Amino acid sequence: MRLLPLVLALCLTAPVAFAAGKTTRIADADVAVAEQLRDRALKDDTAWDFTEGLTTEVGPRLAGGPNDLKGREWVIAKFKALGFDKVWSEPVTYPAWVRRSEHAEIVAPFPQPLSVLALGHSPGTPAGGITAEIVAFPSFDALKAADPASLRGKIAYVGARMVARQDGKDYGIGSTVRVAGPSLASQKGAVAFLLRSAGTDHERLPHTGITHFEDGVTPIPAAALSVPDAEQLERALARGKPVTVKLALDCGMDGEYTGANVIAELRGSKKPDEYFVMGGHLDSWDPGTGAIDDAAGIGITVGAAKLIAELPQRPARSIRVVAFANEESGLYGGKAYAAAHAKDIAKAVLGSESDAGADRIYKMTASVKPEARDAIARIAAVLKPLGIDYDANQPGQGGSDLSAVHAVGMAGLSLHQDATRYFAWHHTANDTLDKIDPEQLRQNVAAYVAVAYLAAQADGDFGSKPGAFAKDKDE
Amino acid sequence: MRLLPLVLALCLTAPVAFAAGKTTRIADADVAVAEQLRDRALKDDTAWDFTEGLTTEVGPRLAGGPNDLKGREWVIAKFKALGFDKVWSEPVTYPAWVRRSEHAEIVAPFPQPLSVLALGHSPGTPAGGITAEIVAFPSFDALKAADPASLRGKIAYVGARMVARQDGKDYGIGSTVRVAGPSLASQKGAVAFLLRSAGTDHERLPHTGITHFEDGVTPIPAAALSVPDAEQLERALARGKPVTVKLALDCGMDGEYTGANVIAELRGSKKPDEYFVMGGHLDSWDPGTGAIDDAAGIGITVGAAKLIAELPQRPARSIRVVAFANEESGLYGGKAYAAAHAKDIAKAVLGSESDAGADRIYKMTASVKPEARDAIARIAAVLKPLGIDYDANQPGQGGSDLSAVHAVGMAGLSLHQDATRYFAWHHTANDTLDKIDPEQLRQNVAAYVAVAYLAAQADGDFGSKPGAFAKDKDE
Asked: B259-293, pLDDT tens digit by residue?
């Protein structure tokens, strides 16, 4: 019974034909179906079940670690069980990095342990650790400005602070320190690097994440202190005497690994070679179970696809869900996808990835051709009752894993999640299922299902073509 | 200038004499001084400075560990620097327990690490750990009712839940499981014990705490899972297949240790041998720095004493601040204090300890003789503007470390702190300075300074005598 109105709607809309031309159009009847899918999503738990299953039965999924393959096998089996028309993998090769243990302590003047996590791609310390004096900087710019003489033989510490915000923009502050700080400190002669975690919380759980050493720079051991430990270190430093810290990291690069992007597709009924693409990334950092980052992203988009799969017929275009490989260490899966599909970029009519947790979507933006703006506005109107505003003045590149494919010409649509809580748990042991609010998760699915259906049904494209969006600025 | 009204008040009140008799009275002029002390406390940061100093410069203070002595030395120096008239130590002997490392993981069917902390007084496992199937119980009563055949050779897990409440009463649920669960499980043949942490949070930080094995029971390794890990284990169990866990604890009893209660006194101007006693405990669990449990308790009462020390003259009776030894493993400091002072219990006119964090006091209760109820009500009136209600129908035993001395006859007054946030951080690595709100901390000092001053000035006693409060029920 629940399907009857949808069937009627589909029958009514099938014969409608739009005038040919550049302007992309969305039919009234498609909007009606999208609205029903949206409302159905608010009662559907496929996304929750997927996220619960992956985080419970596989758990942490460090790229290149033993759970990389396990995660893929789990997702492939789940995609097949959910009734996708086609499930396949596309290989992605990346360096593997392994974490065995980490330890930090203040040695003098106030001996005590510090909660610490090595950064991804950090080398280990010598077996006995590195013991050296701390030189502290309040920001990345202060480190930049530092006289190398002040750093030589010391452990550099950067204590930049982040504030929780809906748009999560302070992550730019923290991630800059984490990604570029160790390389810069090494260039200036530091023997190791510590940062105040790139996070907005006050838990004794450090935030890991990738770091990157510039070519020719000697990698130095680099780790994040939890926020309370960073503040403790700063209190010790505030007393004006030298503070000595011992850092012992057993971690490091571990050869090359070939994983894969796992792709599931609902084949389109009329233009099966054209597709809407959505998804999330399958890898996670290892201290947590990667629930908000990013099992939920795959779960949300799988949940959306599942509802479309239950329609009496497939939409005109295909719909793809991609579980991307190794986002965390450098967007390897996204780049491989872009490389593999660049030659057919016009077939990727629109893309949107979910990778900022599982809290409610509050804003939609898009990077599309001008003639598709009205169609985007029609999609936005379907999302409006979900509390989602459309900002037509900002680009929407489609998300981290789709940034590479957007860069080679795919039109993008971004569904911005409320990041107020996200950066409290991001990249920590606290990234676990209990942080997900099922109601907010369903709101995400409702938005994705409407976007996916309407993009797949739209009469006309969104402007995907080689090099179309090369001038997009970062959001 | 700030002191002038106080000086005047003291001059005016000195000649006042109350009628002799059983009823304890508090003079109007003393109330006026107490009100000024209260208001001054709301602008004073002695408590913060003490708490910041102890947690930064000493850090974790596990009883019997290397910081037991360091903590005492720090506190003795601080007491002397703050201008107390007398500072001394009274020896306390207790068993020492040492934590070296702990590790837990689900071995099958979903291999993954679990965040775990050994419980105090738990024995270690054999070097390779214990690997066994989990038998789960939702509550202590369910464990009690269990057929020993179901437990033999297994790891018992109890998943009792706590809800955050102002009065913290759910700690009764969690602490019962933690203290008595391992002994009971051992009696029924279990080889190890795990509990859902006795906490109200959802952080990946387990709550440690003492456990106790009954005489004749073989101690078994016992540890707490963080709440998210407990829920993860329950999700694995919910799938209906056997769940095997490996638990490896390197910890255990480590001989006998003699620490001390450290006592600071402002000597009374008229009845120096009689005293009001307040304080907190100096030891802490080792994963955090013991800020809310219980550096703040000493800090609050030191802050109160300091304001009284700044008056132009000492109050009639003495005022003691006690930094109790080893509360966490079994109230050793409190019991030693009671044993040492039982013979002079009538001299301890009233006592109140702070040991439920640093959030605001919302309620006052007292266990005193009936003839002192009016005096208690006058004290309560001074506290009322701080948002503190007086519940005359409940006992007030004075706090955990004073429970033993209350049991031998000391009148008690309890200043109940809002425990809504307390049991999220209690006994975890998260017990750090950043969890303390300086404004709420000062409200505590304001309450203690008024109580201490008025108890020291009161004309008449509060009923302390041998065995006076033997019939008090637990709060």
From this structure: 999 999 999 999 999 999 999 999 999 999 999 99
Q: Would you call B205 and A202 a contact, using CB atoms and an 8 Å cutoff?
A: no
ipTM value, please give it.
0.94
- A10 to chain B, closest Cα gap in Å: 40
A342 and A448 co-located in one domain:
yes
Q: Does residue B372 surpass a pLDDT of 90?
A: yes
pLDDT in tens, B163-208: 999 999 999 999 999 999 999 999 999 999 999 999 999 999 999 9
Beta bridge partners of A196: A225
- Over residues B357-361, mean pLDDT: 98
For residues B204 and B75, membership in a common domain is answered with: no
Cis peptide leading into residue B49 (ω within 30°):
no
Task: Let me know whether A275 and A250 are in one domain.
Answer: no
Q: Kindly state whether residues B35 and B174 are assigned to the same domain.
A: no
**CATH at A177:** 3.50.30.30
The residue range of the domain holding B192 is: 97-254
Could you tell me if residue A218 is inside a domain?
yes
Q: State whether residue B456 sits within 8 Å of chain A by CB.
A: no
Which residues of chain A register pLDDT less than 50? Answer: 1-21, 474-475
- What is the 8-class DSSP label of residue B267? P
Which CATH number does the domain housing residue B433 bear? Answer: 3.40.630.10
Same domain flag for B424 and B280: yes
Residues A159 and A214 occupy one common structural domain: yes
Which chain B residues are Cβ-neighbours of A52 within 8 angstroms?
235
* pLDDT bracket for residue B330 (50, 70, 90): very high
A356 and A393 inside one domain: yes
B142 shares its domain with B273: no
**Cα distances (Å, whole numbers) of residue B218 to A456, B97, B122, B144:** 67, 17, 11, 17
Comparing CB atoms, the residue among B228, B434, B435 nearest residue A432 is B228
Interface of B with A in 95-124 (CB under 8 A): 109-113, 115
Give a yes or no: residue B473 inside a domain. Answer: no
pLDDT for the residue B22: 85
Residues of B in contact with A71 (CB under 8 A): none
Which two structure tokens, joined as six digits, stand for B470? 């033997």
Query: For residue A7, what pLDDT is reported?
Result: 39
Task: Please check whether residue B175 lies inside any domain of the structure.
Answer: yes
CA A50 distance to own-chain centroid: 17
Asked whether residue B425 is domain-assigned, the answer is yes
- Count of domains in chain A? 2
* pLDDT tens figures, B128-155: 999 999 999 999 999 999 999 999 999 9
Q: What is the pLDDT of residues A465-475, one digit of tens each?
A: 998 987 765 44
